[in-house]
Design brief:
Layout lengths: L1 H6 L7 H23 L2 H6 L3 H25 L9 H23 L5 H11 L3 H9 L14
Helix pairs in contact: 4-5
Amino acid sequence: MAADSRTEDYPHEIDEQLTGFHSSVSDINTMLEKMMSMPRNDQLQNLDALDQAKLDLMSAYTLNSLFWMYLVTKGVNPREHGIKQELERIRTHMNKVKEITDRKKAARLDKGAAARFMRNALFDPNARKNAADTPSDTPQTKRPKQS
C-alpha cells in the first residue's frame, strides 16, 4: 500500500524520467563519495600540472552543475542567476586546456628529416658528377648567352 500512495503523488507519465533521475543521482553520489574518501593532496600528488588543471576544472564544473540543478528543483530560473556566468567562465578555461592538450598531440615538423627528404627528392646525379669533375679551387666561368 505504501508504494501505491507514493506513485499517486506524481503523474505516471514522468515515472521513467524520475527513475532515470534517481539512478543518476545515485551514480553521482557514489562518485563523490569515492573522490572525497581520498585527500585532495594525495589526488593531486600523482598528477602533472595539466591533469591537475583538468581535475580542478572538472570539480568546479560538477559542483556548479549540481547547483544549477538545485536551483531548478527550487523553481529558480538558473539562466537569470549568476551561476550561468560561472559555468561559462569554467567552459572557457576548459577550452583553453583542450587547446593546450591538442597542441601537445599535434604533429611536429622535424626540420632535419624534411631537409634530407627534400635533398634526396631533388637529387640530380649529373649535377654531382659535374661538381666532382670541376676543381673547387678554380672559379667556374659563366655560360655564354644563347641568342
